[in-house]
Amino acid sequence: MADSKVIQYVQKFAWNSQSSETQRLTKRAILDLLGCALAGSTHDTVPGVTKTIEEIDGRGANAVWGTNVTMDVKGAVFMNAYTGALFDMDDGHRKAQGHPGAVLVPAALTVGARLKSSGKEVLEAVAVGYDVAVREAVRIREAGGPRKGSSGWCAPGAAVTVGKLL
User: Fold this and answer.
1) If pLDDT is split at 50, 70 and 90, which confidence band does 97 have?
2) DSSP characters for 85-147?
């Protein structure tokens, strides 16, 4: 069976082929989410959520930003997404009506660090993840889908982001 058009698109997506504006916005999105996650890491709920995740999965080697905690990949991605979205100040996309950065950036940076991906590879993964996620959000909205909430359209974006790194 031939690969889908989405898979073909992701496979061909190259950082060097993106416009300077796309490259600039991708970098800004990463910095935005990192700032939000660092702020969120100081929230009173973080130690309790961290403790719960550690009870379930234990510790690992992946950083939970803004803390001295390390977790396995899935725990670190979760905590970095949690802290990034905690104050609801993370990036938003008007057409998508949601916040892709809180999902895509922690996935890219945490998995990218684990795989020892280059900066260019991580930037490429974030850019293509955003593209696919936002296109899916717009498609859902145009089909009469829900007007709010990022989970339904960020999931394909996260899959693309991580898949691009693998």
Assistant:
1) low
2) HTTS-S--BTTTTB-SHHHHHHHHHHHHHHHT--HHHHHHHHHHHHHHHHHHHHHHHHTT--S
Compute the residue count for the chain.
Answer: 166
Tell which residue, 51, 83, 52, has the closest CA to residue 66. Answer: 83
**Which region, left, alpha or beta, applies to residue 149 given φ > 0 means left and ψ of -120 to 50 means alpha?**
left
Percentage of the chain modeled with pLDDT above 70: 94
Tell me how far apart the alpha carbons of residues 151 and 111 are, in angstroms, rounded to a whole number.
19
Task: Pick the closest to residue 157 from 72, 99, 73 (CA basis).
Answer: 99
Q: Which of 145, 129, 50, 141 is nearest to 96 (CA)?
A: 141
Q: Is 84 within 8 Å of 36 (Cβ atoms)?
A: yes
In the predicted structure, residue 109 carries a pLDDT above the cut 80: yes
| Residue matched to tokens 């009173």 | 44
Closest listed residue to residue 164, CA positions, set 118, 109, 122 = 122
Bridge partners for 62 per DSSP: 71
